[in-house]
Design goal:
The chain has 160 residues and is of the alpha+beta class. The chain has four helices and seven strands, in the order βααβββαβαββ. The radius of gyration is 15 Å and the shape is globular.
Length: 160
């Protein structure tokens, strides 16, 4: 029986697979990725502080990108920020998104972040369920996207 394996993205083929996961997830919710947006996501995956790919058997199933947390231009190396997490639509509800977030809590590069933050749309119920079930809590921080949609910041803290 296949199993989920999460590995650090280090090869161009893994970058391409992560971008395809992202594109499939965006299309499943009605977003048509433009070539320019695809190129920006590819650069983010390739150049991020930490990117991981989940495979189920030999099929790409999910991806996550994180980087050191920065506020007001000041980087806090003890904290991470989840830049993106996406799961191939055929694997939604399978636990792969939660496995990717848990992998960030003890990543393969030895980073030991004491907390992780993420911004998500207030209307993104699937993401809110994922983050909530992974131990993230609402910080009360709110902002708006350029088109006015509310986004909220959630945070996970290392126990102890």
């Amino acid at each position: 029986m296949p199993r989920t394996v999460i590995t650090a993205i280090t090869e161009p083929a893994q970058v391409a697979a992560a971008v395809e996961v992202w594109a499939a997830a965006r299309e499943a919710v009605g977003g048509r990725p433009t070539p320019a947006r695809r190129a920006r996501v590819e650069a983010k995956v390739r150049d991020s502080g930490l990117a991981m790919l989940a495979t189920y058997g030999d099929k790409p199933a999910g991806m996550v990108v994180a980087e050191p947390y920065a506020e007001g231009g000041v980087v806090d190396p003890t904290c991470g920020h989840v830049a993106m997490v996406f799961v191939e639509p055929g694997y939604w509800g399978s636990g792969i998104g939660g496995a990717l977030l848990r992998a960030l809590q003890s990543p393969p590069d030895g980073t030991a972040w004491t907390r992780l933050s993420v911004w998500t749309r207030a209307t993104n119920r699937r993401a809110l369920r994922l983050y909530g079930s992974s131990g993230f809590v609402d910080t009360g921080d709110r902002s708006s996207l350029h088109e006015g949609e509310e986004i909220i910041r959630l945070e996970w803290r290392r126990p102890g």
